[in-house]
Each structure stands twice: as structure tokens, then as C-alpha cells.
Amino acid sequence: MAATSYDVLIIGSGPGGYVAAIRAAQLGLKVGVVERQYMGGICPNWGCIPAKALLRSAEIFHYIEHAKDYGLVAEKFGVDIAGVVKRSRGIASQMSNGVGFLLKKNKVEVIWGQATLTAPGKVSVAATDGAPKGALGAGEYTAKNIIVATGARPRALPGIEPDSKLIWTYFDALAPASVPKSLLIMGSGAIGVEFASFYKAMGSDVTIVELLPQILPVEDEEIAEHAKKRFEKQGIKILTGAKVSKVVKGADSVTATVETADGKVQTLTADRLISAVGVVGNIENLGLEKLGVKTDRGCVVIDGLCRTNVPGIYAIGDVAGPPMLAHKAEHEGVICVEGIAGKHAHPMDKLMIPGCTYCMPQVASVGLTEKKAKEAGYEVKVGRFPFIGNGKAVALGEADGLVKTIFDAKTGQLLGAHLVGAEVTEMIQGFVLAMNLETTEEELINAVFPHPTVSETMHESVLAAYGRAIHI
Ligand SMILES: Cc1cc2nc3c(=O)[nH]c(=O)nc-3n(C[C@H](O)[C@H](O)[C@H](O)COP(=O)(O)OP(=O)(O)OC[C@H]3O[C@@H](n4cnc5c(N)ncnc54)[C@H](O)[C@@H]3O)c2cc1C
């Protein structure tokens, strides 16, 4: 009979929860994870991974469409959306099963069901469907430390509530039965623009409506503008400073009333609407209020070591607030359990968390935008380098991109890096390391970048900030 008492009991098996569980087990703690629905959470099941699988199909389709540009002949090709979705769902199950395997390997006990905190150190689990083989079930469990890692769900705007038929959330958009001829996307954050790229490549007529003055609102203005121009060149229509104020559903279409900042009102009709206006933390029905755990605007309030205001209760990942990213959740999982185990855990520095968006072209960034750096009082030196000056990017047929670096003019400290173009999500980590190591311009200038690689654009952008770029 398995124990029902743990050193650490984690509610939610997403990137935050499962990574915390594995690290805690490595530290010799007795660990349990309660999961009600998706082994591995949103990321492998209905988030990062299936979205990237769909985008990969879109990317390959795009290359086949442009085969002629590479001197190739591709005559008969098309989209089999059922096949595209099948591949994505298959990868999602593979990743989800992988998380189950890792938990088992690390001797973490999985408890299947809906968890509620009933008292300090006590969690009650009610049965839910779909328990994997070997999982524990409904019952009362105790733990010295409880980590809330319950993630988030799509935000719904009043009057524009998703119905899975005409108004979609990411769940629906990740597994369409067919490709809508026309599609309206509300919100231009990472999720909105990734779906815009996917559906555009699949043949939809896509319009994005964004409330704020720029798309990709958290990104550097110049990079967002570059991406916008590329999207528009591909035929994606974009309305910024525009609000969807009303949606009327037809038999097989939606008509949205859109108000723009200049006071103009227009109606747009499309087959489907994707609501991509952000996510809200899963803080309800957990017993948090009863135990006095502080929450703010839909998220649990934590300190740098993921501690809530109630001793013995912690929160990590999406439920603990932005940025709502899998790698932030994972990192918080490690910080949290290392703190519990009495290790010298380092508090999270949110400025060092990179953001990656896998639209076409990709966008990646870390640190301060130029605007934020100036607002923070820095005198800045800014370097820019376009992909057109990079031999590898041109050879790849991916000459449209930009790397922008921002330095403190006084000290040479790298404050931020912002990239748009092919594979920049793989390149950003170079700048993440540089920022973590508090690198200066001199050290980056002295580093040797391999040739020919697209990463040379990173070096050139640093050189450009100091008037030394070679290839422009
Ligand atoms: C379409 C899409 C694409 C994305 N792409 C990226 C990307 O490219 N990169 C990136 O970094 N992030 C991406 N994200 C965000 C990423 O998925 C989340 O940041 C990440 O999953 C958060 O991890 P988490 O552990 O906090 O929570 P989750 O992954 O949401 O997991 C929480 C788990 O807790 C369980 N749970 C909740 N309440 C209870 C309860 N009471 N009892 C038991 N179990 C419970 C849920 O069932 C769920 O499995 C994407 C998200 C979406 C929707």
C-alpha cells in the first residue's frame, strides 16, 4: 500500500508540477503529484508542443509552395488537415506519456483526481476519469509542503464566450475538423499570431484584431512592426488599436463589430473566430480562500522563492502569474523545491526569462525593450543587423529578419536582445546566457561566432551598436 503522506505534494502535473516533482525526488524527498486530466499539463497536451507540431506542417507546406525558388519541382501537393492534426495529436500523446514515464522513473507517486486543500498540510482528492495505470485515486492525503501548480485556462470575454463551434479557444484551434475559409483572431499575443501563421499557411483568409497599438504587445516595437509587415505581405490582415465589441453568431459564421481607435466601426464576417485574449489562473475550487492564500487578478501571489503568504503552501507556473510560459513554470518548480529542501535556491529574475513566438517569421527576445530601457533611465546604445547581410540566411532563402541589441551606454552591459526571423527561437539562448553572465559589449565582441551561421547576425548586431558592423 502506497503512503498517503508526502514531504511535497504537488497539485498539477504541468511543466511546473512535473519538473518540481522530479527535482524534489532527486533531492531525496517523498513526492506525490495530483493530476485531474492531462498528464504533463497544457504544454505537451494542448499548448506548446501540439502547436509547434502544427506549425511545422505549415512550415513544410510553405517550403513546398516555394520549391521553385530552390530550383525544385513540386507538382502535386496539398493540405490533408486530418493528417496534420493526427500528427500533432500523436506527438502530444507521446510527450504526455513521456512525462508519466519520467515521474515513474523518479518514483514520484501520481494521484489521479481533482485536488482541494482542506486544511494546512491536507489535500482531498475526488475521482476524475482517465486515470493512468498505477495511479493512486480519490482519498485524503497529507504533506509537509503543498505546491499549487494548477496552470491556467483561456480567458473569455463577456458576450464572446467560446462555444467550440463558431468561437474557438486554443483547444478547438489545435484540432480542427476542417480549415475555415475565413478566420478572425482576437488578440495578437504569441498564441494569436501562431494560429494566424498556421491557418494562413493552411489556406484560411486570416484577420487579426488587436486592442493595443502594436501586435505582439510585449515585444520591442520595431521587432513587432517588422513581423507585422511580414504577416501583411503574406496576406494576413491586421487591425491594431481595434476592439471586438460584439459578436453575432450565424448558422455557420460569426459577424464581429470592430471599433477602431479613430472611432470608426466596421463589421467583419468570418467562418470562425479564435478568442486568443490571454489566460487566467486556475485558482478556483482549490480551497485557497479558506486557507487565506492571497491571490491577485486571478493568480496566486508568491515571493521570489514561490512561497505564498501561508507557510507550507507554494505556487508555481501559470497560476502564479506572468509570464505564462512553460520554461518559467519549470524554473519556478526547481527554485521552489530547492527552497523547500533547504538548498541555496536563487530567486527568479523575470527579466532574464526569454520569450519565443513560433509564428512565421519567428520572434524571440530577452531583457528590456528599447522603450523600457529608456523608461528605466538608461542611456542606451542600440545595434541592429538585418538578415540580408548574412550569407547563411541568404543561402537558406530566409533573408528577411532583424537582430536588435540594447546596451547600457555607460557600462556596456547587455540590457536586452530582440530578434525576428527564421529560427531565432533557437538563437535567443546565446543572449540569455550573455545576460545571465552579465556580459558586456567587449566580451560579446571578442567572442568568435561560427561561419556560416545565422547566429553571426547576433555578433554583427553587437558590433553595430558600437559602429563596428562588418557586413552592412
Ligand atoms: C496554444 C498554446 C501554445 C503555447 N506555446 C508555448 C510555447 O511555445 N512556449 C512556452 O513557454 N509556453 C507556451 N504555452 C504556455 C504553456 O503551455 C504554459 O505556460 C505551461 O503549460 C504552464 O505550465 P503549468 O505547469 O503552470 O500549468 P499547466 O501546464 O496548465 O498544468 C496544470 C495542470 O494542473 C491540472 N490541474 C488544475 N487544477 C487541478 C486540480 N484542482 N487538481 C488536480 N489537477 C489540477 C491541470 O489539469 C493541468 O494538467 C502555450 C500555451 C498554449 C495554450
From TrEMBL:
Residues 353-461 form the Pyridine nucleotide-disulphide oxidoreductase dimerisation domain. It catalyses: N(6)-[(R)-dihydrolipoyl]-L-lysyl-[protein] + NAD(+) = N(6)-[(R)-lipoyl]-L-lysyl-[protein] + NADH + H(+). InterPro entries: Class-I_Pyr_Nuc-Dis_Oxidored, FAD/NAD-bd_sf, FAD/NAD-binding_dom, FAD/NAD-linked_Rdtase_dimer_sf, Lipoamide_DH, Pyr_nuc-diS_OxRdtase, Pyr_nucl-diS_OxRdtase_dimer. It is found in: Cytoplasm. FAD binds at residues 52, 318, 324-327. Binds 1 FAD per subunit. GO terms for cellular component: cytoplasm. Keywords: FAD, Flavoprotein, NAD, Nucleotide-binding, Oxidoreductase, Redox-active center. NAD(+) binds at residues 187-194, 210, 278. Disulfide bonds join 43-48. Its EC number is 1.8.1.4. The active site is at residue 451. GO terms for molecular function: dihydrolipoyl dehydrogenase (NADH) activity; flavin adenine dinucleotide binding. One of its GO terms (biological process) is 2-oxoglutarate metabolic process. Its cofactor is FAD. It is an enzyme of class 1 (oxidoreductase). Pfam families: Pyr_redox_2, Pyr_redox_dim. Residues 6-333 form the FAD/NAD(P)-binding domain. Belongs to the class-I pyridine nucleotide-disulfide oxidoreductase family. PANTHER family: DIHYDROLIPOYL DEHYDROGENASE, DISULFIDE OXIDOREDUCTASE. The active site is a redox-active disulfide bond. This is Dihydrolipoyl dehydrogenase. It comes from Ancylobacter defluvii.
